[in-house]
Amino acid sequence: MDHLKTQGISMPKLGLGTFRMQGDTCREAVETALSIGYRHIDTAEMYANEDAIGAALATASVPRDELHVTTKVWHENLTPDAIRRAFDASLNKLRLDHVDLYLVHWPSKSANWGAVFETLMKLKDEGRTRAIGVANFTTALLKIAVEDVKAPIACNQIEYHAMLDQSKVLAYLGAKSIPLVAYCPLAQGRFASDPVLAEIGAKHNASAAQVALKWLLDQDGVAAIPKASRRESQQANLDALKIKLDDADRNKIAALPKDRRCVNPGFAPAWD
Ligand SMILES: NC(=O)c1ccc[n+]([C@@H]2O[C@H](COP(=O)([O-])OP(=O)(O)OC[C@H]3O[C@@H](n4cnc5c(N)ncnc54)[C@H](OP(=O)(O)O)[C@@H]3O)[C@@H](O)[C@H]2O)c1
What pTM was estimated for this model as a whole? Predict the structure, then answer.
């Protein structure tokens, strides 16, 4: 599996998303994923599953330095004290002494970005997170973090898939050598029944979902974190790495609609 090197960490390009999985379902899914080779797990305090993931990590026999664990602080907890409390709770539930990446989950209009990133940088200096980053940041917000605050941003985790244009953010991230971690890489599962992706898949003896995933993972500086609770889907997503898409396939994907955003809560920023 390829890795992305960023701000001193090495992140597997394919990870396991865990939103909407909790309790034993989540624990079992993470145990299965680790057993078949996943080494990158994505969670957040908001997912209310860090305890289940912690239980799975505790029983797995994977050396800690081979694992990449990302968690995130919720946008209502962006004061220095609240970040500290949220971080301590996350680490405790995950049963870890450090995470690999700690992200601001969503921007907040009331955040003091200097204070937010100073707090995250202290956690990094203390060795409790190996790197820090953001999620759902627009180019304007990235400029504040990267150019004004000069925070060592290791990634921007945003929605990105075959039916959503992210060229503006990608151009900014590329210029700064910051990876994009794609969430909803399968458009929340909708791609499984897409006829264009299925037709491309038929040519490669692969599924529509696998084609969508490989299209993302073929891109420089892009990682993806599909959520899959079933072993079959987890394995299918690992197997997607073997598909070789060609220019004709990429042209068909380029012609798909690019305005299908799945995640747009009321507190989202004005997207690029
Ligand atoms: N930073 C943020 O604000 C943010 C927002 C949203 C998501 N995320 C992260 O990104 C992760 C992924 O996004 P998501 O969960 O919303 O959507 P997604 O990964 O695009 O889609 C997940 C759905 O696709 C299905 N699936 C997975 N692999 C498949 C395959 N090979 N064939 C057919 N169906 C397949 C899953 O089914 P089964 O579970 O039944 O296997 C599930 O229903 C989240 O879990 C979370 O970790 C972050």
Answer: 0.99
Distance CA 236, CA 270 (A): 35
d(CA 18, CA 54): 13
Terminal Cα distance for the chain, rounded: 31
- For ligand 1, the distance from its centroid to the CA atom of residue 122, given in whole angstroms, is 32
What does the alpha-carbon distance between residue 37 and residue 235 come to, in Å, rounded to a whole number?
A: 9
Q: Which residues line ligand 1 (CB under 6 A)?
A: 17-19, 42, 105, 135-136, 157, 183-189, 192, 207, 209, 225-230, 233, 236-237, 263
Whose Cα sits closest to atom 14 in ligand 1?
184
CATH hierarchy code of domain 3-254: 3.20.20.100
Nearest atom (ligand 1) to Cα of 234: 28
- Using 50 as the pLDDT threshold, list the residues of the chain that sit under it: none
Report the DSSP pairing between strands 40-42 and 68-73: parallel
| Domain residue limits, the chain | 3-254
Half-sphere exposure of 237 (CA within 13 A, CB side): 28
In this structure, the residue with its CA closest to atom 15 of ligand 1 is 227
Say which amino acid occupies 152: P
3-state helix, strand, coil in the chain (%, to 5): 45, 20, 35
